[in-house]
């Protein structure tokens, strides 16, 4: 038992371990059978452990390790079902959770093949099944990764091997692209093909260059063309100012890079050839010379209709923070390494969201998984990199890692996970390797800051949110003095807006006094003294405010929880006075007083104000139906009261929307109508948060209605009700977007009344006028994108397609049942149902 | 194929404290009524954790406000309810709270992305919770706050200085 235990938890490998195994084989006959059975029971546990720590160190060791694991698997493979299953399961899970290791995992199977061809064959069969399952589910990332594993096994296969699948996938892509110009699945398929080719060609002796060239010639039409949908994912759409780079599609880059690589004879320098790695142990390599068994490529049937998967697919844009440096610290976009590394980094990041520490560890150790000397040593200072330029690689692993994280934080239209995941991932990386990550992060921040003018507004806000949150995890330390010149700019300049917005968000996570302490003196005036007050002033305390007496009366009544009648008396008095002063909508001043009182009383905390709102909700609910203008006054009063803490105002408005005291349209019309003025308010990040949050609430609801509509087995009347609700709510949503778009058109073109008057009267400088137009443009782009994205999910044709697809799937299952267990014959019946399902779907 | 165990640990599992609490309750239940032993599979508490939408949040500073908590935790989804933990006697914040989301997924994401990060410059702890019930907002320590603040012999300015019991010891000795 002792030796088993020590191996189970130890990391000893190589000769020591081999010797032990041999020894045990010799001894085994002498052992009591009971103990031997217990040892066998534990073999699958040992295998799991071995596989989980496999390939964590540098390439050279990994080859030895692979041989050892292969030996272990070959020897015990047929011992128990559990052992076999563990081998399949853990390798399967490693492929989709730790894609960096795919070439390494494949090398295990290649080694197994040397020993036991029939065991290796079972791994191939399993890999093919895994790929097909992912294909049927529309799990495109898994598909890509399983296919990559097969690609790394290419030396096994007779003939064209993996290329047979690639050809079939390409045909499907062409069909999809021909059927619709909006198709994105076809683009995804081509991406998968292009990302598989290099892993096939990297295997020595496969002799498939001609085949690859042929396929690349075909993919060129799809990959190199521009696609309308790409306008939705461009991180730098702005037309005024300096762009860090023009829009680059990942697909277009891949195509060009592969063609370049083909002309260089498929060098593919970065992909590790684990199985062929030279080791000091020459004996080991000579023993492999007995020609390993070749296998037929497993039959893979691509289903007749391909599923889009759970989430809508958008093409990927290539985003990089480290372009335009005098020294290349990341692979240039002309090099296939840029896309290969980015792809696997992004997958690792997005798959491992359930353990950010593990994800961060991969990012920091990414150099372990590529050809040695692909990168400079970890944590090499940027200045040092300059010195060694010309003598070797200048690629900094931490730059690549951060580049990949930011590409996901800044992915449009939406990131795969909640943005806070990427925040926490960066925080974790900084904690694990501060000396390596922090300087690169600083360069990243400066780069993004430099190009704020042309950045998409959604991304400016994400950047602000991340920055403030990040600093809150690191004592709010930042070298603010380097931006001291920028605080002299107009309040409407994107850089100034960014600084102000970030400080506001820092304060929300902390408090004003603390944040002021972290700033150089020239910044102090940016945080006004009034921001330090926990309770903002009550405007009716000042007699100069109209209705001051009534405001104070109302306050004391509300404080002592007076009856409705008493309160109504004061409100009536405000309204009578207002009428005397010629106010047409007397509900406006009385609402202002009422809401301001609620805010003041509730200023102690969020729960205080919420319980006050709850108590007054009947009165508040009655405001909107009597006067739309008074309803919008509620927003105005909240925002004015919390002017120094706009985050609180946005929060409250959101709660009032939940109570249906406010409506989405009232918020939108207040924001881009009542309060628009010159349009300068569009530079306020809290307004973007408020409008964006409101829109999100509406779109989520419509999506939920669609999801409910797609439920199976709904009774007819429920279905009809949902259908009607959907039509109504979707129209309301479109109306919302169109109100925003109209308003933004005016601002972007410089023809909104407020701005024109202000410029004419000299209240607004020409320069600020131009900046406002840029903000209008940014808002317009962002909300047009949101509208377009929603159409792809809840628009009429999108819903019809989903209903048809669901029907086809149901029918497919029925057909399968009728045909017994045979999995064929699904192709034709499905096509029939596809067409018949379309027209009738909305009626049934 | 069914769910296969992940190759790295998941951060959205309940802590051993909560898991043990479940076990303790189950144990007590079984001991109380032996006949219930047949329904071993799933206790109601385990069901609650399976789709928990509430989180216990610990190691807050006494001075951290609802607004600050809201600002951070809303990054994982809209907050349905926020209950501040209070000193049983003084009714002032005593360093913990309950955050309730609308969905289980938001609560899990919070475990993954916010647990173990800083709020108000302190590393906070999150744990899945079976759901808030009236009364749980109060500290259970002898002097009204959380038990952990009774015996702490390190000075923590964010949580009332030294532990209260320790503090008492000092004053008695002097």
TrEMBL record, chain A:
Residues 331-520, 538-791 form the MIF4G-like type domain. Residues 10-22 have a biased composition (Basic residues). Residues 30-40 have a biased composition (Basic and acidic residues). One of its GO terms (cellular component) is nuclear cap binding complex. Residues 1-40, 820-844 are annotated as: Disordered. GO terms for molecular function: mRNA binding; RNA cap binding. Transmembrane segments: none annotated. One of its GO terms (biological process) is mRNA export from nucleus. Pfam families: MIF4G_like, MIF4G_like_2. PANTHER family: CAP BINDING PROTEIN (PTHR12412), NUCLEAR CAP-BINDING PROTEIN SUBUNIT 1 (PTHR12412:SF2). This is Cap binding protein.
TrEMBL record, chain B:
It is found in: Nucleus. Residues 27-46, 147-157, 165-174 have a biased composition (Basic and acidic residues). Keywords: mRNA processing, mRNA splicing, Nucleus, RNA-binding. Residues 1-46, 138-174 are annotated as: Disordered. One of its GO terms (cellular component) is nucleus. One of its GO terms (biological process) is mRNA cis splicing, via spliceosome. This is Nuclear cap-binding protein subunit 2. It comes from Patellaria atrata CBS 101060.
């Amino acid at each position: 038992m002792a030796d088993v235990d020590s191996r189970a938890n130890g990391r000893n490998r190589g000769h020591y371990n081999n010797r032990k195994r041999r020894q045990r084989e010799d001894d085994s006959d002498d052992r009591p059978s009971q103990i031997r059975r217990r040892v066998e029971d534990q073999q699958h546990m040992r295998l799991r452990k071995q596989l989980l720590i496999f390939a964590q160190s540098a390439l050279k060791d990994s080859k030895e390790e692979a041989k050892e694991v292969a030996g272990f698997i070959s020897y015990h493979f047929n011992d128990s079902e559990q052992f076999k299953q563990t081998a399949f399961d853990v390798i399967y899970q490693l492929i989709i959770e730790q894609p960096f290791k795919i070439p390494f995992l494949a090398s295990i199977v290649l080694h197994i093949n040397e020993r036991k061809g029939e065991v290796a064959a079972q791994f191939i069969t399993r890999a093919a099944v895994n790929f097909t399952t992912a294909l049927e589910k529309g799990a495109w990332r898994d598909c890509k990764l399983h296919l990559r594993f097969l690609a790394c096994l290419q030396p096994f296969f007779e003939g064209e091997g993996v290329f047979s699948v690639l050809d079939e996938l390409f045909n499907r892509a062409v069909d999809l692209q021909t059927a619709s110009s909006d198709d994105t699945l076809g683009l995804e398929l081509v991406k998968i093909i292009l990302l598989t080719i290099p892993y096939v060609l990297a295997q020595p002796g496969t002799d498939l260059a001609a085949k690859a060239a042929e396929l690349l010639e075909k993919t060129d039409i799809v990959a190199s063309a521009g696609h309308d949908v790409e306008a939705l994912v461009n991180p730098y759409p702005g037309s005024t100012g300096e762009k860090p780079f023009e829009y680059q599609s990942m697909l277009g880059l891949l195509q060009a890079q592969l063609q370049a690589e083909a002309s260089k004879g498929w060098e593919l320098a970065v992909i590790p050839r684990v199985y062929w790695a030279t080791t000091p142990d020459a004996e080991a390599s000579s023993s492999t010379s007995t020609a390993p068994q070749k296998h037929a490529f497993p039959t893979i049937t691509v289903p007749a209709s391909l599923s889009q998967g759970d989430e809508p697919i958008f093409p990927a844009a290539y985003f990089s923070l480290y372009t335009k440096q005098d020294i290349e610290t990341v692979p240039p976009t002309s090099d296939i390494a840029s896309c290969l590394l980015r792809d696997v980094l992004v997958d690792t990041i997005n798959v491992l969201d359930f353990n950010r520490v593990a994800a961060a560890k991969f990012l920091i150790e990414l150099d372990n998984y590529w050809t040695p000397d692909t990168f400079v040593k970890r944590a090499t200072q940027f200045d040092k990199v300059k010195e060694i330029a010309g003598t070797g690689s200048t690629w900094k692993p931490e730059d690549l890692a951060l580049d990949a994280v930011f590409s996901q934080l800044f992915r449009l239209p939406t990131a795969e996970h909640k943005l806070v995941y990427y925040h926490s991932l960066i925080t974790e990386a900084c904690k694990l390797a501060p000396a390596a990550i922090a300087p690169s992060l600083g360069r990243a921040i400066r780069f993004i800051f430099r190009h704020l003018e042309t950045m998409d507004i959604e991304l400016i806000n994400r950047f602000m949110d991340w920055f403030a949150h990040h600093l809150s995890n690191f004592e709010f330390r930042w070298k603010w003095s380097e931006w001291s010149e920028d605080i002299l700019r107009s309040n409407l300049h994107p850089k100034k807006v960014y600084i102000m917005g970030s400080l506001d968000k820092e304060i929300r996570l902390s408090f004003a006094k603390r944040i002021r302490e972290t700033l150089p003196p020239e910044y102090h005036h940016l945080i006004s003294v009034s921001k330090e007050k926990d309770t903002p002033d009550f405007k009716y305390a000042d007699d100069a405010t109209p209705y001051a007496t009534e405001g104070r009366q109302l306050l004391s009544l509300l404080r002592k929880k007076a009856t409705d009648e008493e309160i109504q008396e004061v409100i009536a008095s405000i309204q009578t006075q207002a009428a005397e002063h010629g106010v047409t909508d007397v509900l406006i001043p009385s609402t202002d007083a009422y809401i301001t009182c609620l805010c003041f009383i509730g200023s102690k905390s969020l729960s205080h104000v919420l319980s006050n709102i709850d108590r007054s909700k009947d009165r508040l609910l009655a405001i909107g139906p009597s006067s739309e203008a008074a309803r919008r006054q509620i927003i105005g009063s909240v925002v004015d009261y919390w002017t120094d803490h706009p985050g609180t105002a946005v929060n409250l408005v959101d709660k009032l929307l939940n109570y249906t005291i406010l409506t989405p349209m009232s918020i939108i019309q207040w924001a881009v109508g009542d309060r628009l003025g010159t349009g300068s308010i569009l530079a306020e990040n809290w307004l973007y948060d408020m409008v964006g949050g409101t829109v999100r609430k509406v779109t989520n609801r419509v999506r939920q209605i669609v999801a409910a509509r797609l439920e199976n087995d709904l009774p007819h009347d429920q279905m009809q009700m949902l259908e009607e609700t959907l039509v109504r709510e979707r129209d309301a949503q479109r109306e919302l977007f169109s109100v925003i778009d109209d308003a933004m058109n005016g601002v972007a073109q410089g023809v909104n009344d407020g701005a024109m008057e202000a410029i004419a009267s000299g209240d607004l400088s020409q320069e600020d006028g131009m900046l406002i137009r840029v903000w209008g443009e940014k808002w317009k782009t962002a909300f047009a994108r949101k509208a377009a994205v929603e159409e792809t999910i809840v628009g009429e044709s999108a819903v019809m397609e989903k209903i048809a697809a669901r029907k086809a799937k149901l029918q497919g299952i029925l057909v399968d049942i009728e045909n017994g267990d045979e999995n064929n014959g699904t192709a034709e019946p499905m096509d029939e149902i596809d067409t018949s399902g379309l027209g009738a779907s909305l009626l049934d | 194929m069914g769910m296969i165990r992940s190759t790295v640990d998941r951060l959205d599992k309940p802590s051993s404290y909560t898991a043990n609490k479940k076990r303790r309750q189950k144990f007590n239940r079984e001991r109380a009524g032996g006949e219930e032993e047949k329904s071993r599979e799933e206790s109601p508490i385990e069901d609650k954790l399976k789709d928990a939408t509430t989180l216990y949040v610990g190691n807050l500073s006494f001075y951290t406000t609802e607004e600050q908590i809201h600002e951070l935790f809303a990054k994982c989804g809209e907050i349905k309810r926020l209950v501040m933990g209070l000193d049983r006697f003084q009714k002032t914040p005593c360093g913990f709270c309950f955050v309730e989301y609308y969905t289980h997924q938001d609560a899990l994401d919070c475990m993954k992305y916010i647990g173990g990060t800083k709020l108000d410059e302190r590393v906070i702890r999150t744990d899945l919770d079976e759901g808030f019930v009236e009364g749980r907002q109060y500290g259970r320590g002898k002097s009204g706050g959380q038990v952990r603040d009774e015996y702490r012999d390190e000075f923590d300015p964010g949580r009332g200085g030294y532990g209260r019991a320790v503090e008492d010891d000092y004053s008695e000795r002097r």
